[in-house]
Amino acid sequence: MNTSGPIGIFDSGYGGLTVFKEIHKQLPQYDYIYLGDNARVPYGTRSFETVYEFTKECVFKLFDLGCNLVILACNTASAKALRTIQQKDLPPGKKILGVIRPTAERIDQYTKTNKIGILATPGTVLSESYKIEIQKFFPDIAVYQHACPFWVPLVENNEIQSEGAAYFVEKDIREILSQSAGIDTLVLACTHYPLLLPVIEQYVPEGVTVLAQGELVANSLSNYLMRHPEVEQACSKEGNLTFYTTDDAADFAEKARIFFGEKIVATTISTTIS
C-alpha cells in the first residue's frame, strides 16, 4: 500500500452524500474526500462508455489527491464502470468498491417472499447489475426492476413536497408492485431516493419493506476494513472531511446540506490529473 491517505467517496452529484453521511456516522475516525461530478450530472441516462470514462477520471483524481481506497457512492457508476475499472485500470495498491454488492449480499435478510423490487435510474435498470448480483448470491430470489427517471430531478430541484413528487412516486410504486404479487421488499437503488422516503412511505402498502443503501454500505465498508488490515492501515485517521465539486462550489455547499445533514464547505476542482 502507498502512504496513508483519505478514503475517497465519489458520486455524479449530491446523492452519494446520503451514503457518505452513514459511512461517516459509523466510521468517523477516518479522513474523507468527497468528489461530486456535478458539472456532468446526470449519469443515469448516459451510455456505458461515457459513464466509465467520467467515473475513471474522477476516481483517478481522488487517487491523485492521495486516496488509496475509493467508494463509488453512485449506483450508475457502480453498475456501468466499477467492474471495468477494477479489472483494467487500478494502479498497484489502490482499491475501489461500489454500492451494489453490499445491498445484494444482505437482501435475503429482508424478504420473506423471495420477491424484491428495484427502483433505480434508467441506466442502472438497463445494466441489470442488481439482478445479476443478487441472483449470484441468492438464485431463488426473484428480482423485478422499474426505472424512475423523474425522481432525481424532483430531489435536485427541491420538489420533494410538491404535487409532482406525489404523482410520480405513487405511479412508480404502483407500477413496480404490479409486476408481481408478493413483492415485499423495495430497494431504493439510487442515492437520491432516500430523500423521498416521506413520500414513498405514503404509497407503500403495509408489509412492504423499503431499503435505503447508506447503512448497508457503511456496514459493508466497516466489515471490509476489518477483513483487509492492509487497506485499513492505508487510510489516514484525523477525522478530516474535504468536499470537492466539478461545478459551482457555493451552489454545491448549499444543496449538499439537504443530503449530508449538516453545513459543509466545498471547493471547485477539475478532474484533469496534475
**Overall 3D shape:** globular
Tell me the span between the first and last alpha carbons: 21 Å
Gyration radius over CA = 18 Å
Main sheet properties: 6 strands, parallel
Structural class by sheet pairing and helices: alpha/beta
Strand order of the largest sheet: 4-3-1-2-9-10
* Number of extended strands: 10
Helicity, as a percent range: 40-55%
What amount of the residues lies in strands? Answer: 15-25%
| Unreliable residue runs | none
Give the helices and strands as they follow along the chain: EHEHEHHEHEHHEHHEHEHHEHE
pLDDT averaged over residues: 94
- Number of helical runs? 13
Topology:
Elements: E1 7-11, H1 16-26, E2 32-36, H2 48-64, E3 69-72, H3 75-80, H4 82-88, E4 95-97, H5 100-104, E5 115-120, H6 122-127, H7 129-137, E6 142-147, H8 151-156, H9 163-177, E7 185-188, H10 197-203, E8 209-211, H11 214-227, H12 229-232, E9 241-245, H13 249-260, E10 266-268
Helix pairs in contact: 1-11, 9-10
